[in-house]
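Lecture notes, unit on protein representations.

Consider one protein chain, 286 amino acids long.
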Amino acid sequence: MSQFYLTSNNSSSSSLSSIDNLPYPAPLSRPDFLVSSFNPSHYLSTLRSRHQTLEDLRSELRARSQLLSQELLDLVNGNYQDFLGLGASLKGGEESVEGVRVGLLGLQREVEGVKKGVAERRREVAEGLEERRKVRGEMLVARGLLEVDEHLGELEEGLAVGSSPARKTSEEEEESEDDSEDDDDEDGDEVAWTMSLAKLRRHVRGYLLIRQLCEKIGAQHPFLIQQESRMMRVRNTILLDLGAALKQARMAGDAGKGRVMRIVGLYGEMDEAAEAVKALKSMKVS
């Protein structure tokens, strides 16, 4: 019986000696725990080939955790005095901060002043541009009024309205004679007309030009309202001249047919077709 236990003791001691002969596992590598993608489950799965019992592994991990906690505590204690010194060094900075704050406030006020100045300048420029537009518009209106008065005076002078007819220059007389000859030649007759069609046409177109200028300026302008009596005299005078020329052309018979059509056309240019019809009817009655 004792031999049996002796044999058992020998086998046990041999087993222990074989275990002692196994290589001891290397300490866990610290960099393995510093990986950003560290995963405990994955890390434990890589330790399968490690010759170490689970209890020993747990003890080693617990010791490593205690070591890290102690290192963190030593780090805090070691830098505590530096933290206190940093807080002390920051004392007295209120004056610097206040100076910066005051400087920023001053800069802000300056910026606001510049913005107000720019806005005021912009308003002044806008007002100046508006005033310039108004002045330019008034200048154009004044120029138009001067043209109306000038053309109206020339037309009155040509029609001898309100004054004796002005004496023509030699060039105007030659031009009038040439126009008269051109118009008379169109009739294919040697009838002596008292007024050339060219002169009538100039008067009609001068009258239309004045009307266009008045419409462009605005018929309600005080100056133009004052000129309505002059315009009416000019219109009536032109219509009288056209009526006289039309009567003369009708009395000429076949020789004046072309001239009649051109005179009626001048009535149409003046938008006075009703006056032409009225003049023709009066001739038939007479």
